[in-house]
Amino acid sequence: MSGQRIAQIEQAGEWRTDKVEKAGDVKPGIYNLYLASQADKAKSHDGVILHADKDHVYQQVGKSFIKHDRRNFDQVPEIGEIKTIAYEQGRAVVATSSASMKLGRTMGRWF
């Protein structure tokens, strides 16, 4: 993948490249975001932010993909960051994930 993030969309049975950007901190792989489930606003969702488009913010939670309505965010989180997203009065509240803090502490021991 050479450090690139490629977003493709399906149109009339054909895959078309929509956007090519730097991958940043997103791990290499194929992410089938069309399988994403709508976020449950009664729960918090903890995982890496994979993609954001004009309509949704996509997050990997475990092995599943969740899509959040972009209009619920005051500011969209950075792609590649591990975040916890919860909802208060219909608005998305983004916080640093406890998993992210654990990784940071673990990595700090190696230096």
How would you portray this structure in words?
- The chain has 1 helix and 8 strands; from the N terminus they run ββββββββα.
- The chain has one helix spanning 98-109, and strands at residues 4-11, 14-22, 37-38, 45-52, 56-61, 64-69, 82-88, 91-96.
- The protein has 111 residues and is mainly beta.
- The chain has a 6-stranded mixed β-sheet with strand order 3-6-5-4-7-8.
- Residues 103-111 have low confidence and may be disordered.
Q: How are the secondary structure elements laid out?
A:
Blueprint: E1 4-11, E2 14-22, E3 37-38, E4 45-52, E5 56-61, E6 64-69, E7 82-88, E8 91-96, H1 98-109
Parallel strand pairs: 3-6
Antiparallel strand pairs: 1-2, 4-5, 4-7, 5-6, 7-8
Please supply descriptive tags for the structure shown above.
single chain, 1 helix, two-stranded antiparallel ribbon, mainly beta, six-stranded mixed sheet, 111 residues
